[in-house]
Design a protein that fits this description.
With 289 residues, the chain is α+β, with helices and mostly antiparallel strands. It contains 8 helices and 19 strands. It has 2 domains: 2-70, no CATH class; 79-283, Fumarylacetoacetate hydrolase, domain 2 (Alpha-Beta Complex), CATH 3.90.850.10. Strands 1, 2, 3, 4, 5, 6, 7, 8, 11, 12, 14 and 17 form a 12-stranded mixed beta sheet that branches. A 5-stranded mixed beta sheet has the order 9-19-18-15-16, with no helix packed on it. It has a two-stranded antiparallel ribbon with strand order 10-13.
């Protein structure tokens, strides 16, 4: 099943290049303050699937290319990210002073994971707004894993049982000496899309091709088989420190080829079995006073 959010918070089932509006299927999701610390849709996805299919059968589809796609996860409780999780990216980061800024780039096994602000999440139609044009800002394509049920100190052998699905993630990064979580948490610097592909449609997340182009030029090309720490092991590692909740997003790391982007660029991100999405880059609006 492929699910998306589009337009003004509409919910859709994607099939054969068409989007079927199944927003009425979400009516059973009703919460009162204080709101839960997880994404209600992702938490109840298994029980909603039948209603989603029924509503899709009763509505006409629209071409996917004609709708403005939002992040398929509306309310992630946290975004967990894996730094330097491809060997060749570790090597390029250590070799390029404009990436490492005189800081030792350590292996992921030494530095662990980091968190990104959920306020940085956007969908592909919303684009990336460059907030510090005077500094180098890079693209980073990643496989994004969406947690489907609580994972507390799970083993790697059982970790994939806790996955709701997968999507493409872009971890946009301002280079500099500050901590990663600061430089990567800027508004619009976490792009998720185009759809949430449920776990049953991805036979092996460790065998997926990644490709990112900018204005038609190939920048990043790799396969998730090159991950230093694989998807299941990352889930186990993260859950050993904090409970992963439905809707939490795990960014698994980016391969080599990171490079600057600027206003006016068009990024195209593709992951085999997941899909493809175009993301425009623009200058951030002036600060509101």
């Amino acid at each position: 099943m492929r699910l998306c959010r589009f337009a003004e918070d509409r919910f859709g089932l994607v099939r054969d290049g068409q989007v079927f509006d199944v927003t009425p299927a979400l009516k059973p999701l009703s919460y009162h303050y204080p709101l839960p610390r997880f994404d209600p849709l992702i938490a109840h996805l298994a029980t909603l699937r039948a209603d989603i299919e029924q509503h899709a059968a009763k509505t006409a589809g629209r071409p996917l290319a004609e709708v403005g796609l939002l992040s398929p996860v509306a309310n992630p409780g946290k975004i967990v990210a894996a730094p330097v999780n491809y060997r060749k990216h570790l090597e390029e980061a250590r070799a390029d002073a404009s990436i490492h800024h005189q800081k030792q780039v350590e292996e992921i096994q030494r530095v662990g994971l980091f968190l990104k602000a959920t306020s940085s999440v956007v969908g592909p139609s919303q684009g990336v707004a460059i907030r510090h044009p005077e500094r180098r800002t890079d693209h980073e394509i990643e496989l994004a894993v969406v947690i489907g049920r609580p994972a507390d100190r799970v083993s790697a052998s059982r970790a994939l049982e806790h996955v709701a699905g997968y999507c493409i993630g872009l971890d946009i990064t301002v280079r500099g000496p500050e901590e990663r979580s600061l430089r990567k948490s800027i508004d619009s610097y976490t792009v998720l899309g185009p759809c949430l592909v449920t776990a049953d449609e991805v036979a092996d997340p460790s065998r997926l091709d990644l490709l990112l182009t900018v204005n038609g030029e190939t920048r990043q090309k790799a396969n998730t088989s090159d991950l230093i720490i694989g998807v299941a092991e990352l889930i186990a590692y993260a859950s050993s420190f904090y409970t992963l909740m439905p809707g939490d997003v795990l960014l698994t790391g980016t391969p080599e080829g990171v490079a600057p982007i600027q206003a006016g660029d068009l990024m195209t991100a593709t992951i085999g079995g997941i899909g493809s999405m175009d993301i425009s880059v623009r200058a951030a609006e002036a600060a509101k006073t």
